[in-house]
Amino acid sequence: MTGLQILIDGFAISALYALAAVGFTLIFGVSGFLNLAPGGIMLVAALIGWWAAGTLGLGVYPGTLVGVLAGVATAYLTYFLVVRPIQRSRKIPREETEIFVLTGTLLWGIMIQGAMAFIFSDNPVTMRPLIGGVANIFGVRTPWNEIMIAALCWIVIGLLWLLINRTPVGKSMLAASINPRGLTLLGFDLSRIYLLVWSIYGVLAGGAGVLLASFLGVGTANAGQLTASAFSIVVLGGLGSVTGSLIAAFVVGYLETVTAYLINPTLRPIPALLLLVVVVYLRPQGLLGRR
Amino acid sequence: MIALAIVLVAAVLPLWLSAYVLGVLTVAYYFGVFSMAWDLLFGFAGEVNFGPTFLIGLGAYTAAILDNNGLPIPVCVLAGTIAAVIGGVLLAMPALRLRGPYFGLVTLVAVLLLQNAIVIFASVTGGEIGMTVPNLISIDARVNYWFALGFMAISAVILFGLSRSAIGLILQASGQDAIEAAALGFNVTKHKLAAFCISAFFSGLAGALLVLYMGAASVGTIVDISIGVQIIIGAVLGGRRTILGGALGAVFLIVASEFLRPLGQLNTFVVSAIALAVIIFFPGGMLGAVLRAGERE
Amino acid sequence: MFDVKKASARFGRRFFARSGAAAAALGLLALAASAPAAEPPIKIGVIGEASAVAGASITKAAQMAADDINAHGGVLGRQVEVVIYDDHSSAADAVRAFQRAADEDKVSAVVASYISEVALAIEPWSGRLKMPFITPGAASTDISKHVHDDYAQYKYTFHGWMTSAFIAQSICDFEHDMIVKDFHAKSTVVMSEDAAWTTPLDAQYLSCLPKAGLKVLDHIRFNPDTTDFTPIFNKIEGEHPDVITTGISHVGVQPTVQWHDQHVPIAMVGQSSQATTSTFWKDTNGNAEGVITASAAAPGVAITPTTVSFTEAYIKRFGDSPAYDGYTTYDDIHIIADAIKRAGGTDPDKMVDAMEKTNYVGTIGTVQFYGKSDEYTHAIKYGPGLVTGVVLQWQNGKQVTVWPRDKANAKIQFPTFIKSPHA
Q1: Are C292 and C270 in contact (CB under 8 A)?
Q2: Same domain, yes or no, for C270 and C398?
Q3: By C-alpha distance, which of C175, C114, C135 is closest to C380?
Q4: Domain count, chain C
Q5: Looking at chain C, which residue has its C-alpha nearest residue A256?
Q6: Residues C270 and C199 in one domain
Q7: Does residue C197 lie within any of the structural domains?
């Protein structure tokens, strides 16, 4: 019984993690830079979504949509205000650009957290479930919402896969991640590709934020932990590898769930962190990393 | 030198300023040491430490826990410093084998692990909300102020001296082009490890002293990533690779933050925004531009 | 007409000069006495947590209290000014705020926080800086135990809310009176956050719940950082208790929402600090339905003649009902003002003496403090006729009072997914 509960619970959490991580790894894959803003984007999406659904009275589905859009907007802001100026800056030596992007996005993340806390307070918010009520899966009482969330995540990931592997736009993204200079030589506009990647990132992270708010609740205090989790998963799976991130998301999701149920809910984040440390020492490129 | 003049002026300030302002400056001076220690590692050894608070936290919490158990203050401080150095070595040895973003990652993970450990062992550490420290260095604001100022001044002298010494130059070489430095026969890893230990020493020492001044320690004020960011920003603001710039930047940051206190929650927002702007538009920092001109070789 | 010449001739010039001077002096005195607020205001520092549900009530209620006192002429002819600080739920920040209040802003007393770790961090400083300090919301028994153990050092600290031990006792009394009697419950699981205030709370629970008629099947303490409560509820359900006895303050929204979403079929009863204010209903999207919590007071119930009018005024001004520490803060500010009046000034030692003799009818009941020889020195006295708190339940978006029976304005009702306890 507990086993089945763990299976279901873990699946839902992993799907959410996967959604957040895939966008993150895409950014790295295409632009070559890590950024520390995903927690902030998820937070904005969750809070704006809650506000739109409840305070503005738009209801759950439109509210969710508004939340995701807010996530995309934040992603754009992150790119245009922080990442792009640093990437293009001539005053920063090339070897240090990465560090500056990391520090800059870290600062940006803190700014978002501060602004959100000011507007919405630190209290966690929850989105009303997209579908109410509970289902009974072989004796395990599961909210329909949880099932729906997992399904949504997989649909989005599936769509993404289709986009990357079956459409010309997606293929140019893939090419850009392997050899950006080659692509420019062929006449492709890299900046348009970056814009696309950041849009996708916004949708994914924003979506993950809103869905997480619906499943567990999200507050400004969570933002840092969210970024840390997304980061760990992406590194575990291998920077730049979408499949790697997917697998890592499930490994981490299930590790956390099993720990919470069988050992102690308090120790939940520990095994994943330890695993990360081990992997970074033994195989720094992660499970399926390329760079 | 200008630096000496500044220190003398600072030493005289307590005659005019209120106890509270002195308190702010005292904390600022300790942060100055944090930033200088960080700059040694980054500016010279070229290693970005995203988790200076890992070392600081080790020093601070060790001292706090021992103080709660009644041990005399000098013992607590010593233990805190040693704990930080050990932590630094444990972190550095495997981490130095990694390249690029992975090193920064590991330092970040170290902070997360420490944070989680503190929260989990809340019965000993007070968890997220924090713990109190019964025996302080002193209650008198002036005594604390002069102590911190003196500590910062001495640390500055040592760290600056190191950066200008043979060791410092080797570190700089290793930081900017490790392969060439190795080709020239220098043991890059050994020197970076030394830099780590020195950075850890000062971080842990300052951390222990800070906690024994404030009388309270919590994740939010000692270990949190945002504190680490403040330290990094202080160093970058002041000027990378200048050591002294770190002290300047950190003090500036904390004083500015204090002025913006009436803004309440927006305080962090504004300070981060300013820091972000500086990073993008003036990556050289305040002292950076000035000193670099003289340093160019 | 008054002829000065003739008058001077009769009474002598000196007489006139003297009476002239006397008249002038009297005139000046009269002027001085009637000059409004020529004296500096009395400052009271208030440290709250603006972004926490319960912490926000502290600063709002303090402002209301100050305004009310000033509308009635102030204290000793001086206006009361509230100086507000935010400690961001951090003990270290709170200590700094306390130091600033004492050194920079020169307040005469400090009202601080609902978080026990914060109150405990401030306590030694109130002794070091000789600053009277009262906490309107923290609950740890250590706060008052320190005063008992080292009176000379800690006497400046007062505990302006029930200690955890009494909170737990009141909940045990409630459960005995209603959950056991009316609902025939026989067992419970204690579920609380791992924090300073719940250590004595749980200890009291474990001792008084069996006496109330409930067997304690398990005792769960979870990390206040927890976001996913599913494994915890799962574990509790597996043990089949009739009711869950809670001790939560730092968390509230997430466990309550998840409890509702997952249709956990066991009722939650106990202390849930966030559930004491009406913003909680909005934050949980109404999932608070059926949650039972102890509190200082509740809307619509007149514990004392001033309870209802305060609640209504607060709602009118701020839009939401006060959390439990809103009531206590309102009372505590008045208590400080009252003590200053009786002490004749703001000398810290005289204020402490005056506060010890407090016998004040506030919104939460009649407030008196325990003395030097009692176990919980300077804590609020617990008992009928003094302060007992109430137990309220969320029903249809409103907080109704269910206990004590003589103050109750509704009966306990549980949502349909709750299967135990069953009446």
Answers
A1: yes
A2: yes
A3: C135
A4: 2
A5: C228
A6: yes
A7: yes
pTM of the predicted model as reported, rounded to 2 decimal places: 0.79
pLDDT tens digits along C320-375: 888 899 999 999 999 999 999 999 988 999 999 999 999 999 999 999 999 989 98
Q: Supply the range of the domain harboring residue A121.
A: 18-222
Give how far A225 is from chain B: nearest CA, Å: 9
Phi-psi region of C222 (alpha: psi -120 to 50; beta: other; left: phi over 0): beta
Structure tokens at C24: 């002038």
Place of tokens 């340093």: B295
Q: Please list every residue in chain A whose beta carbon sits closer than 8 Å to the beta carbon of residue B282.
A: 91
Q: Is C381 within a domain?
A: no
The CATH number that applies at residue C185 is 3.40.50.2300
Q: Is the domain of C260 the same as that of C245? A: yes
Burial letters for C163-182: b for 16+ Cβ neighbours within 10 Å, e otherwise?
bbbbbbbbbbbbbbbbbbee
Element (DSSP H or E) covering residue C314: helix C307-318
Q: Which of C56, C231, C283 sits opposite A260 (nearest CB)?
A: C231
CA-to-CA distance for A228 and A234, rounded, in angstroms?
A: 10
Mind listing the pLDDT tens digit for each residue in C249-273? Answer: 888 888 999 899 888 999 999 999 9
Half-sphere exposure for A156 (CA within 13 Å, toward CB): 27
Task: Identify whether residues C67 and C134 lie together within a single domain.
Answer: yes
* pLDDT-based confidence at residue B175 (cuts at 50, 70, 90): low
Model confidence at A27: pLDDT above 80: no
For residue A276, the chain B residues in CB contact (below 8 A) are 109
Place of tokens 């998820």: A42
Q: Cα A120 from chain centroid?
A: 22
Instruction: Write down the pLDDT at residue A273.
Output: 78
Strand, coil or helix: what is A189?
A: coil
pLDDT in tens, C151-169: 998 999 999 999 999 999 9
Give yes or no: residues C200 and C81 share one domain: no
Does residue A7 belong to any structural domain of this protein? no
**Is there a contact between C194 and B19 if contact means CB atoms under 8 Å apart?**
no
Which candidate from B132, B139, B265 shows the least CB-CB separation from C51?
B265
Residue C109 has, within 13 A of its CA and on its CB side, a CA count of 32
Q: Is C71 a member of any domain?
A: yes
Q: What is the pLDDT of residues A246-291, one digit of tens each?
A: 888 998 888 888 888 888 777 777 787 788 778 777 776 677 765 4
pLDDT at A158 over 90: no
Instruction: Identify the band that residue C34 occupies on the pLDDT scale cut at 50, 70 and 90.
Output: very low
Same domain, C48 and C114: yes
Report yes or no on C89 lying in a domain: yes
Query: What is this model's ipTM?
Result: 0.78
The helix or strand, by DSSP H or E, that contains position A190, with its residue range, turns out to be: helix A190-215
Domain that holds residue C77: 42-161+306-367
What's the total number of domains in chain A? Answer: 1
How confident is the model over A126-142, as a mean pLDDT? 77
Cβ–Cβ < 8 Å for B20, B255 = no
